[in-house]
Model the fold of this input.
Amino acid sequence: MTNIYLKRGKDESLRRFHPWVFSGAIHHFDQQPAEGDLVRVLTAEGDFIAVGHWQIGSIAVRVLSFADEPIDYAFWRRRLQVALDARRSIGVADNPRNDTYRLVHGEGDNLPGLVIDIYGATAVVQAHSVGMHVMRQQVAQALKDVMGERLQNIFYKSETTLPFKAGLGQENGFLLGGSPDDVAMENGLRFHIDWLRGQKTGFFVDQRDNRSLLEHYSAGRRVLNMFCYTGGFSVYAMRGGAALVHSVDSSAKAVDLVNANVELNFPGDKRHQAYCEDAFKFLDANENKYDLIILDPPAFAKHRAALHNALKGYIRLNVKGMECIKSGGILFTFSCSQVVTKEHFRNAVFTAAAQAHRKVRILHQLHQPADHPINIYHPEGEYLKGLVLYVE
Done:
């Protein structure tokens, strides 16, 4: 295993258990590692400090352990068992009303570069580092061992998440099983999960708690779900007793999927209608029609250079939402951009309220759920921000 020596004084963040080594902190190697290799990280004085995966780029090492231990099958099994035990303790795993949850959330579960979502009897595994891609078979075997008979399929979906410069030629596909059954349950509601072609791992598990909150505000309201994707918020609103629910997405495939999910839970229910349209055009044409609006757009900024334009986008979208909503309406608004902090997002919404000339109160400040934990030593893991607003 290659030893990587840090520059003098560049071990401070690792001594605070931050799980990344940046390329600028490295002094030299004792041999050149291949991308995805396991490497040992040493201080300038030669003292061991961490072991992790090497990758070309700004984040050069993703730390797997701060102990000098083998990264073998027993390691993966142990970490996955800890992750499952945590999900059991918060009530999302082994729950008869819920078989949809995130089992591994990268750095939040001390497994940087790895995401695993559970949808019924299927796990969708996603690698965000070359090292995790290299170890995918061993991870899959350990996952099956830990999950037992509850797990029948493992689908590997990393085609778009691995660094393209690594030239891995990765294609998505099953590592175990191959069942076409795509229905999973979240809080007693059923959803088709498109792990083959859908965004991320096929369904946005991170909004589960926020969807439940929306359900409690939906009774008798006219609900608009913008950027609806698979229609999670729409289905919860219908169970909550909404008077009508309109779902909007620019993707025809998403509109088909939300219609299928509504039909799965509320067959023949005429309260719901879906539209394949641009968000801003739809809002322009439907002012003062809705008293509950959800704004949950895709990430406006995927890197820091895009932050300024992203904040302008959030301001513009929230201005339009506040102009459109009825007096006394409730607005659920979100950002899933990691580089947009809570303060950035709140200031953008504050600016939008002032520009829309509406009186606005914050009812709730929202975030990702407990199965998307934030490693206390890695604050960058907090990515989902949301506000529930009362708009006079």
